[in-house]
Amino acid sequence: MVVEKKKERSAEIPTASLADIAFLVLIFFLVSSTIDVDKGIGLVLPAKGETKNIREKNISNLLINAQGEVLLDGESVAIPMIKNIVREKIAQNEKLIISVKTDRETEYSIYIKVMDQLKQAGATRISLAEPDK
């Protein structure tokens, strides 16, 4: 009696649906992940209150134009110098209010740098003026 040897089967992994599975996994992660959206600058603004007349000597105007130039009381100032100048002005007048006004085209990075300088100078009375329309 002759016994036939069985042929060994080669082990194959079916890959026909592998592309479909990879695509579905990709879609799943795209749909289930969250997209972080920039929400802007978080400022807590006070509620609208009464308008008070303030003496001219208690106001210091800080203007930032579209080109990024900073004017403090009409004089051009470098951004790193704002801290020292404002600190001196506050030492002379404790009731000093810094009125910050920007152009609509002013870059946020410049605005943030100026606000950081005011914070480092110890300015606690800051008024944000509305840009011209």
SSE map:
Elements: H1 18-32, E1 59-64, E2 70-72, E3 75-77, H2 82-92, E4 97-102, H3 108-121, E5 126-129
Parallel strand pairs: 1-4, 4-5
Antiparallel strand pairs: 1-2, 2-3
Helix pairs in contact: 2-3
Please, could you describe this protein's structure?
The structure is a single chain. The chain is of the alpha/beta class and 133 residues long. The chain has a domain of 74 residues: Nucleotidyltransferase, domain 5, CATH 3.30.420.270. A five-stranded mixed beta sheet has the order 3-2-1-4-5, covered by helices on one side. α2 packs across α3. The longest helix has 15 residues.
Under CATH at level 1, the class of one domain stands as Alpha Beta
Order of helices and strands: HEEEHEHE
Question: Gap between N and C termini, in Å?
Answer: 104 Å
What do the pLDDT scores average to? 84
Strand content: 15-25%
Rg from alpha-carbon coordinates: 32 Å
**Net shape:** rod-shaped
- How many strand units? 5
Structural class: alpha/beta
Helix share, percent: 25-40%
| DSSP helical segment count | 3
List the strand order in the largest sheet: 3-2-1-4-5
Q: Say what the CATH topology of one domain is.
A: Nucleotidyltransferase, domain 5
Q: Multimeric state of these chains? A: single chain
Taking the sheet with the most strands, its summary is: 5 strands, mixed
Parts with pLDDT < 50 across at least 5 consecutive residues: none
CATH architecture of one domain: 2-Layer Sandwich
Compact overview of the structure:
The chain has 133 residues and is α/β, with parallel strands linked by helices.
